[in-house]
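Journal club prep, shared notes

We agreed each person brings one worked example of a sequence with its structure written out as tokens. Mine is Kinesin light chain. I'm keeping it raw so we can talk through how to read the token line rather than staring at a rendered picture. Sequence first:
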Amino acid sequence: MGEYSKALTSYERSLEIQKIALPPNHPDLAASYNNIGNVYAKMGEYSKALSSYERSLEIRKIALPPNHPGLASSYNNIGEVYRNMGEYSKALSSYERSLEIQKIALPPNHPDLATSYNNIGLVYDNMGEYPKALSSYERSLEIKKIALPPNHPHLASSYNNIGSVYYNMGEYSKALSYYEKDLEITLKALPPNHPDLASSYNNIGSVYNNMGEYSKALSYYEKALQIKKIALPPGHPSTALTERNIELLKKKM
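Then the structure, token by token:
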């Protein structure tokens, strides 16, 4: 938290100087408000983050052309804060505004478009609107397949998100297929004891558990646990959760 307060002090000092030295709607002022918003967002102080992001957006609306990527970035940041606050309809509105601008400002398969579709998918996912979430996640994945190398971690993340929707819909064989694609890339893209790998093993274990294939579930849970014990601090809640899952699973067998 100390680093955040230092960053905040530095950005605020910079802003004070800019307010004196620059015209009131100079793009550099917008950048400073945006930086301050980023710090508040990382600190979880969402109402302060929102206030800074909105001030940044106001200036950008005056200083920049109507379809400038900087505006898309502002709408995206505001959407992110609303999503973290659980205000999903506001988040959706901001993310969609960001996407509209990106469609005009960027090439059709730009990675930023994939990010926007993914963000919209996350909101629908949070709202339990699974078919809409699926549609957005799939659009994001299509772009990532074109824009990114075949074993990029962002592709793994897309497969994981789609798998998660199918899991929540109770479509376990489809969930398994996507979780396995996620794992395949994660094994190539990340170090052998990375926490994301534990998460991939855990997800596959959960699917097998729900399908009643307990020995397969156990095997994946144990792989997840092995990594968590290496990658996470002792007594981490995530490790405890996996240990509990294994305990409950063994009672079913």
